[in-house]
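FAQ

Q: What does a record look like?
A: Structure on top, sequence underneath. For example:
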């Protein structure tokens, strides 16, 4: 593995575990047992590392959201979209833990993120159109647009919701199980649009993948 890739992997681990604000380039270099100068040879500052990590996250999410051209969508596809997107959210959780701070600190990253948002939103629309085409959901084009946007809002703001509403005063860690609760909320958004032919199957898949969290009871 190249030194550049080692730096990115170490930074991702430290950012996820400790939060981006608590980690400096010196921390990353020490973690890898390399000199700060060696790190700066590959990245001029921490913002450059964050930008590169975002590009990797962007690529991964857009791959997760790709819609097949050669076959109709299935209920399994719908579940996999949710699993994959929330897995990506977990793997790059530092970004969504403090997204506003990251974007305000880097105009180039902010511009790139806005483009990414539009691409993701269109992919989510395509997914819902595909689910409508096979008769899984019933909704008009305006509903597709609204549901796609609401789904993406839940995905990207879920960390903030957890930290603001569910974390104890001195508790810093959000668990994967807590994150999985966001999948339940996406199912809840979609539930009114399910057709009778698919309702039982989708609700069964929801129960298997993400049952109602205890803290919603």
């Amino acid at each position: 593995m190249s030194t550049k890739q080692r730096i990115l992997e170490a930074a991702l681990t430290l950012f996820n575990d400790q939060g981006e604000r608590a980690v400096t380039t010196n921390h990353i270099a020490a973690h890898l047992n390399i000199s700060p100068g060696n790190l700066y040879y590959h990245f001029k500052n921490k913002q450059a590392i964050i930008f590169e990590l975002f590009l990797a996250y962007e690529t991964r999410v857009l791959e997760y959201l790709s819609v097949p051209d050669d076959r109709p969508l299935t209920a399994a596809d719908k579940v996999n979209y949710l699993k994959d997107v929330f897995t990506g959210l977990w793997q790059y959780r530092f970004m969504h833990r403090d997204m506003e701070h990251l974007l305000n600190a880097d105009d180039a990253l902010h511009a790139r993120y806005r483009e990414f948002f539009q691409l993701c939103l269109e992919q989510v629309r395509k997914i819902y159109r595909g689910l409508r085409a096979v008769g899984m959901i019933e909704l008009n084009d305006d509903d597709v647009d609204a549901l796609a946007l609401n789904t993406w809002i839940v995905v990207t703001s879920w960390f903030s919701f957890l930290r603001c509403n569910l974390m104890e005063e001195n508790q810093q860690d959000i668990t994967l199980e807590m994150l999985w609760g966001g999948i339940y909320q996406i199912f809840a958004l979609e539930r009114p649009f399910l057709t009778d032919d698919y309702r039982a199957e989708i609700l069964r898949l929801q129960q298997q993948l993400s049952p109602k969290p205890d803290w919603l009871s």
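Q: Is there anything notable about this one?
A: The chain has a mean pLDDT of 91.
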